[in-house]
């Protein structure tokens, strides 16, 4: 049996697995990373625990209201539009504006 990880090591590992899940990695890829590539020296059972903890965080992060999501999306489109305008990419800026209009429903007749 290996030595027990510290609280900060566990936090780092769960955060790493969370990032892998967000990147769309499969459980198999996460197991391979955690048991072979990371140097963590953990069992498959411990990796299952890290994945479970990371999935709980993911669920919490996804609990967002429609209004909050819309605000984030609009802010993202605004930022992209401003960057496109600064670079002279007017078609991209227009597409961002069109997406904002569609998001808030102003494109409906």
What does this structure look like?
Helix content is 75%, strand content 0%. The protein has 109 residues and is an all-alpha fold. It folds into 2 domains: 7-62; 66-104. The longest helix has 21 residues, at 66-86. The termini are far apart. The model has no long low-confidence stretch (mean pLDDT 91).
How would you briefly describe this protein structure?
The chain has helices spanning 7-22, 27-37, 44-62, 66-86, 90-104. The protein has 109 residues and is mainly α. It starts with 6 loop residues before the first helix and ends in a 5-residue tail after the last helix.
Give the helix/strand layout.
Elements: H1 7-22, H2 27-37, H3 44-62, H4 66-86, H5 90-104
Label this structure with key terms.
mainly alpha; 109 residues; 0% strand; 2 domains; elongated
Structural class: mainly alpha
Q: Termini, distance in Å?
A: 67 Å
Our Rg estimate from Cα atoms comes to 21 Å
User: If helices are DSSP runs of H or I spanning 4 or more residues, what is the number of helices?
Assistant: 5
Low-pLDDT residue intervals, each spanning 5 or more residues: none
Number of domains: 2
What's the helix-strand series? HHHHH
Q: Could you tell me the mean pLDDT?
A: 91
Beta-strand percentage?
under 5%
């Amino acid at each position: 049996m290996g030595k027990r990880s510290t609280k900060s090591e566990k936090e780092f590992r769960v955060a790493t697995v969370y990032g892998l899940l967000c990147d769309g990695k499969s459980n198999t890829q996460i197991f391979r990373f955690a048991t072979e590539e990371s140097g963590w020296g953990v069992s498959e059972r411990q990796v299952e625990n890290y994945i479970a903890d990371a999935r709980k965080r993911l669920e919490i992060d996804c609990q967002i209201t429609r209004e909050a999501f819309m605000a984030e999306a609009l802010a993202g489109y605004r930022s992209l539009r401003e960057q496109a305008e600064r670079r002279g990419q007017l078609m991209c800026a227009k597409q961002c504006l069109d997406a904002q209009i569609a998001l808030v429903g102003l494109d409906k007749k």
